[in-house]
Design a protein that fits this description.
This protein is mainly alpha-helical and 112 residues long. The protein has four helices and no strands.
Length: 112
């Protein structure tokens, strides 16, 4: 996991990760400006689900967990203990991110 956390920071990942967030920011603002039009509540909800459920969860929970894991020697007993704790907590937050993305997809599809 330590090597994945280092190698994932590249231009392709950054574009794929931050691009949809930027689009959701724009869509959220536009949907508020056109609130009375059909579907805009769903667009706003989809944007909020994505931004809160994926971006905020990532930066508030998953990234700090990754940072702590990066400080330990994976071959040490401490590394094994940290990994066991990390795996459970990180996976739970990853499920929250997945749910946020799925709820966003549903909301955007309902906005048609």
């Amino acid at each position: 996991m330590q090597s994945i956390n280092v190698s994932v920071v590249n231009p392709w990942f950054i574009a794929a990760f931050f691009g949809p967030a930027a689009i959701c920011c724009v869509l959220g603002v536009i949907s508020l400006m056109r609130w009375n039009r059909q579907g805009n509540a769903c667009i706003f909800a989809g944007s909020a689900f994505y931004l809160v459920g994926t971006m905020i969860v990532t930066f508030a929970f998953n990234v700090p967990l990754n940072d702590v894991l990066a400080t330990v020697d994976p071959a040490s007993p401490e590394g094994a203990n940290r990994w066991a704790s990390y795996l459970v907590v990180w996976t739970n937050w990853n499920h929250v991110r997945t749910a946020g993305a799925l709820l966003a997809a549903v909301a955007f599809n309902l906005a048609k």
